[in-house]
User: What shape does this take?
Amino acid sequence: KKRIFSGVQPSGNLTIGNYLGAIKNWIPLQEEYECLYCVVDLHTLTVRQKPAELRQRSLNLLALYMACGLDPKKSILFLQSHVSAHSELAWILNCFTYMGELNRMTQFKDKSQRHGDNINAGLFTYPVLMAADILLYQADLVPIGQDQKQHLEITRDVADRFNNIYGDTFTIPEAFIPKIGAKIMSLQEPEKKMSKSDENENAFVLILDPQDAVMRKFKRAITDSDREIRYDEQNKPGVSNLISIYSSVTGKSISDIEKEFEGRSYGDLKETVGQSVVEMLNPIQQRFNEFSSDKEQLNLILKENAEKAAYMARKTLSKVQRKIGLLPRG
Ligand code: AQP
Assistant: This one.
């Protein structure tokens, strides 16, 4: 069976961008592949976190994974920090990654602008930890949104470099990026991606936003001064984003949506898209309330799954350690 690895950071409440670009696409893969879906808590440390909140958000993200349809009986759902091999391999891979490669990462440039007071080394080497996450499990496919494509390319380059020196060690992973929904844009600045840490709350819709907040945010979404409802990312980014969201939520094609809204108003479009999102989120929110209240169960799932993941990770890590000349403990 081919293997899948992906993850989301518990760095805030998840947006419909995280859902449509990533998690939603993970669900059907569970049937065909061996899947590992991780709550990547170590990655959040690049930005200062409040300890109690981070703990709560990590557990809630597991509950949200399950509410979205990930099944701990089919997939390995676990916390990154519970498997120490992630950090161990990351150090080794740091020594196989060039500063020049990391310097080109657009996410580093973006995030160091947003967090100018805390441009730490972790923020810079983030893609190396991500490479370790993926390569440890010999993943074949990595379902991600468009913004992570550059990081996956570094992962492939580092794996390839290592394999060339030491012989076949890592599977070279492929990105799996959805055709629609891979880049959901901010509702307020549609040239920017929708991000859970945006300071403007109207820019994003959260998976757990109540119905009235969802509708309000869509009603306030930025469009343009024209009236035509058509898909044109360059000239009509706001309207195009609403069309993409609607397409991703309903499965309707862009051209069918353009026909559906011919001669109708922007107000109508916003109302319809908002409603479709509310309907999509309703069952997820109900299940989240159920799962998140049973902390004991969530902790048990984390414990069992960490053991499975650690076993798989250990195999790769031992192989790497042996190949590079680290002496086994015996
Ligand atoms: N706007 C988006 N559209 C489509 N996919 C998206 N993803 C994120 N934003 C969008 C995908 O969600 C997965 C998890 O992302 P993450 O939480 O690990 O990190 P991120 O990309 O940094 O997400 P955010 O929301 O922008 O978080 P902050 O604000 O904390 O930086 C990834 O597969 C990503 O592609």
